[in-house]
């Protein structure tokens, strides 16, 4: 059995509501804030999907996914979260499409967007540990020990493009 299949079986079970709660907390860690007036109170707009909110002060509508890589997606959040979990193994779009049961095109897009988000997140953090210059990339070897089981490889290294001074 491949590492990806094993990791798929080990993925925690969660539902769409769990994902919405997690996304809500990530987007508004101190509670809802209206993007227009900063107001903290909102209505949920039921008729246009569970992820739409309306500010009680100024009636501005916003969604849970607005301004995130998930904006405009019609793929259930649970598949995005599952994909994020599976990406620990450096999964291909083809395998991802089989495991989370979406089209190859959707899997490719999810893979691409999640990699981009991880890259942006990583670029904001300093490289630590033993640094190596590999080609044009400055790489930190094993800067984060694997937190999964022994079967799940952790990210071996984190790399950043290195521009030679002058
Ligand atoms: Zn408002």
Automatic annotation (TrEMBL):
Pfam families: Zn_ribbon_IS1595. It comes from the Bacteria. Residues 16-61 form the Transposase zinc-ribbon domain. InterPro entries: Transposase_Zn_ribbon (IPR024442). This is Transposase.
């Amino acid at each position: 059995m491949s590492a990806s299949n094993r990791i798929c079986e080990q993925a925690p079970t969660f539902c769409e509501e769990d994902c919405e709660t997690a996304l809500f907390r990530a987007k508004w860690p101190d509670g809802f804030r209206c993007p227009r007036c900063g107001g903290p109170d909102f209505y949920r707009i039921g008729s246009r999907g569970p992820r739409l909110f309306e500010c009680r002060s100024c009636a501005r509508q916003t969604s849970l996914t607005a301004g995130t890589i998930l904006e405009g997606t019609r793929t259930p959040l649970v598949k995005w979260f599952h994909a994020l979990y599976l990406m620990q193994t450096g999964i291909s779009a083809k395998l991802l499409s089989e495991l989370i049961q979406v089209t190859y095109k959707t899997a490719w897009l999810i893979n691409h967007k999640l990699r981009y988000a991880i890259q942006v997140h990583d670029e904001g953090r300093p490289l630590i540990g033993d640094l190596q210059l590999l080609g044009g990339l400055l790489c930190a070897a094993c800067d984060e020990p694997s937190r999964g089981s022994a079967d799940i490889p952790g990210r071996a290294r984190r790399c950043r493009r290195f521009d030679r001074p002058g």
